[in-house]
Amino acid sequence: MYKNSGAQTTSASIAFCLELPVKMDFLHRNGVLIIQHLQKDYRAYYNFLSFMSNVGDPRNIFSIYFPLWFQLNQTVGTKMIWVAVIGDWFNLIFKWILFGHRPYWWVQETQIHPNHSSPCLEQFPATCETGPGSPSGHAMGSSCVWYVMVTAALSNTVSRVDKLSIILHRVFIATHFPHQVILGVIGGVLVAEAFEHTPGIQTASLSTYLKTNLFLFLFALGFYLLLGLLDIDLLWSVPIAKKWCANPDWIHIDTTPFAGLVRNLGVFFGLGFAVNSEMFLSSCRGENSCKLSFRLLCAVASLTTLQLYHLIKIPTHAECLFYVLSFCKSASIPLTVVALIPYCIHMLMKPSDKKSN
Length: 357
Fold this sequence. Notes:
Elements: H1 2-41, H2 46-55, H3 59-72, H4 74-98, H5 103-109, H6 137-152, H7 156-172, H8 178-195, H9 206-229, H10 237-244, H11 257-275, H12 278-283, H13 292-309, H14 319-356
Helix pairs in contact: 2-7, 3-4, 3-13, 3-14, 4-6, 4-8, 4-9, 4-11, 6-7, 6-8, 7-8, 9-11, 11-14, 13-14
């Protein structure tokens, strides 16, 4: 009886593995039809979808949403960073496990079309991302952060419009299949919901930040090296992306799997030092922290300063140098927003306080 049960289980597993490529081809084939429909019939909405996608771009989390929210509500701002970093880390691990193709190269690589007559998909400057496609990092990252902001203050309608626009845009430009962005949204919401029940992040010590950062890095690196020993190349998507991208100038090193990891670890590292620094404790936890004028000045100064950060271009000719400088640049963002700017404004407001007394 038990032998028959085991044999049935093995047979079912083998059948599932054999059917999986067929099911994925079905998803990909129908996904391509949806992309072609969007590109043909909704071309007039491209600029709007592109704008809304930029609004929800995970890279704007650190340069726009975080500095604004942290100065208005430190609890929400801190949670945004934790959710964004952990969510993007899970996204990277899932990408390495799922080996998801992207539409713009899948139509060229697949053999399911007769006579090699691959469907025509238009490419755009944001199409040629080099990492695996599933789940969508844009959809997952924006879902994490918008979930935190919505539960804190914003209208749920705004969140739904932004998520829908990101989904449509990522599909429209042929960088994701529909099922990949749906998985990203679901994953992002799950991560954000988990942190709704993790109050300890608000009082985390520097040691906690460093240990978490080290764990995230070592786990990702260990996973990468382990699969490498098994002859599984986790960077398999990079040469394929370079091969089928319509314009080589659209290939950017900051879309590689490790670029996002380094960027997020840098931000997390900087936040840990910032919230445990004397500059933060004397300014944001001091007597000025309750003043609306202090918070507004910090928010305006932070947003202005971080826009200047975009003028700092990191050289991309050497990959290792790019990762090191990207880490340092990312770490400087929370250090500037959380510690340096509030401390400077706190010191500037001190003389006026004394004179008024």
